[in-house]
Amino acid sequence: MSRVKSDAMRVGVPFLVATLLVMLSVPLATAIDEPAYAAWGLFAGLAMYGVALSHVLRRVLFPYLNLKAFALRAFDNPIGAGLVFVGVCLVLMAFVLLMGNVAHAGELPTNAVKYLPTLKAEQRAYWPNMPLPSALGAQVEQETCISLRSPRCWSPRAELKTDREQGVGLGQITRTARFDSLAEVRASNRKALAGWSWDKASLYDARYQLRAMVLMDRRCFDVMVGTASTMDRLAMAFSCYNGGAGGVNSDRRLCRATAGCNAAKWFGHVEHTSLKRKTAVAGYAKSFFKINREYVRNVLIVRRPRYVPALEAS
């Protein structure tokens, strides 16, 4: 095999495997109803991209170095063999460190440790049969964490103000000129949220904030009927929380009218059909369509695995 062909294989195969892992991790994880696997597939794909890139860099930086010839020559004496062994160990150690960084990605934000017991208690009290409790932790992270080290990450005082809306707290309860989600959820849950108000100190009460989020999620889940799986129903419920039930229903109607689109499925189907604005909105730097779709994917796929131990342990 020529050197050019060999290099092409060594770069091309890892690159192809990496691309397949990145592209298929979410659909496969969704198909088997195990969304946590998607994150590991994505990490594995990124690692394989690193393998392909490392060979390219070695050829660019050391174009005349033939590692195979060096290794074969090294085996002719014990010292050389030992150096080859050390080199292999260094490569393996690099992968161990890479996986350590992946594991580090599961570290909880500081404030999350404080408020997760409250979230768990509210979920068990107001939505005991929630199919995937870890998604609620991911949802708080999505709503409040610009980064995991940000002071507003998992903070009851996290607040977003734009010309269009005001959002406050762990679930970013929102009011605009057109609607007031705090008033709406309190009206339908008067006993559970009786003391909660925009103009009282209770606005920043973490217990009320998390209770309202759970109740709103449950309501969205209840109205998203006719889905292909629990994961599809959850995806539509989180889209509903972020953008309203009417928006999801419109997206599903558009999907039904689109060839090859299954309105009972979110991933790969409804997630791609929408009447939502697809141009960036002032104050958000993204379109409402992109914000809504990223919301669902981040909650169910990207952020959720971090909260499995805390929220799904018996």
Number of helices: 12
The major sheet is characterized as: 3 strands, antiparallel
Number of domains: 2
Instruction: Tell me the strand order in the biggest sheet.
Output: 1-2-3
Overall form: globular
Could you give the distance between the termini? 56 Å
Radius of gyration: 24 Å
Low-confidence stretches: 95-105
Q: How many distinct beta strands?
A: 3
What class do helices, strands and sheet pairing give?
A: mainly alpha
CATH architecture of the largest domain: Orthogonal Bundle
CATH class of the largest domain, please?
Answer: Mainly Alpha
Overall mean confidence score, pLDDT: 83
CATH fold-level assignment of the largest domain: Lysozyme
Strand-and-helix sequence, N→C? HHHHHHEEEHHHHHH
Helix content: 55-70%
- The portion of residues forming beta strands comes to under 5%
Task: Give a verbal description of the structure.
- By secondary structure, the chain is mainly alpha-helical.
- The protein has two domains: 3-104, no CATH class; 110-311, Orthogonal Bundle (Lysozyme).
- It is built from twelve helices and three strands.
- Helix 9 (230-243) packs across helix 10.
- The radius of gyration is 24 Å and the shape is globular.
Short description:
60% of the residues lie in helices and 4% in strands. It is mostly helical and 314 residues long. It is globular.
What are the main properties of this structure?
3 strands, three-stranded antiparallel sheet, 2 domains, Lysozyme, globular, single chain, 314 residues, mainly alpha
